[in-house]
Design brief:
elongated, mainly alpha, 5 helices
Length: about 110
């Protein structure tokens, strides 16, 4: 039976959070334009933002190219668990620390 990898550390979650914020900066405008079709009043909830950021492969790509990608143990957990076992931990961290409650994201 495979040994279960430990959960992400607080420092690792901070790195994931920074990368998630950067991913939203990269993809957010395009998504909002597609949803709003030019309507600048269109917004999306933070839960939708978190879902979009986690589900796009850009988060993993960004983590792999940043300086922290040199930590082999962290990258093994990202490769193995980012979209599976640790997803709830990452979602909760993004809700609590990156994409704040009561905020809607728009133009």
């Amino acid at each position: 039976m495979a040994k279960k990898q430990p959960r992400f550390t607080e420092d690792e979650l901070k790195d994931i959070g920074r990368a998630a914020g950067s991913v939203w900066q990269e993809i957010g405008c395009d998504i909002l334009q597609a949803l709003g079709e030019g309507d600048e009043s269109k917004t999306v909830s933070r839960l939708v933002v978190i879902e979009l950021v986690i589900d796009c492969s850009r988060l993993e790509q960004m983590l792999k190219r940043k300086p922290w990608s040199k930590d082999a143990a962290f990258m093994a957990r990202v490769d193995d668990d980012l979209y599976r076992q640790k997803r709830s931990q990452i979602e909760q961290y993004l809700k609590d620390h990156v994409f704040k409650a009561g905020t809607r994201y728009g133009f």
